[in-house]
Amino acid sequence: MDPKYSPSLSTTDPYLAGFLASYYVPPDPRGFETSFNHEGRTLRQWHFSPHTKTGEQTAALTQGWKDPGAFNAADPLHPFSFYMVALQNAKALLQRCADRSPVYLIEKGPKIALVDTHAPRGVQDTILQKLGV
To answer: What pTM did the predictor assign?
Structure first.
């Protein structure tokens, strides 16, 4: 962390930085991005002004990001609540896909089959036979 920037107004989370920027939080006039190397990795940190263009405190938004449930409960219609819920939903959808069995798409001429790799071998064979493989 660059000591000239406030920890409550800076983030290494690109999602938070993107949401703050789309919510019209101006960048810190001393600099918007800091890049640094740490243990062989390049890390980036984004810095924002203390207030949004509408006068809200940026620190309240970054704090709300740490506890979305409390932020959403306090103000469920706040645009930032929608951002956080949308991100949580996207992560849940990706996890749902990751938890599912892999499926192979097999094409033979105009025929297409989806074969679940965890289906019983007999089921897989039946699908492949109907496909003509």
So the answer is: 0.68
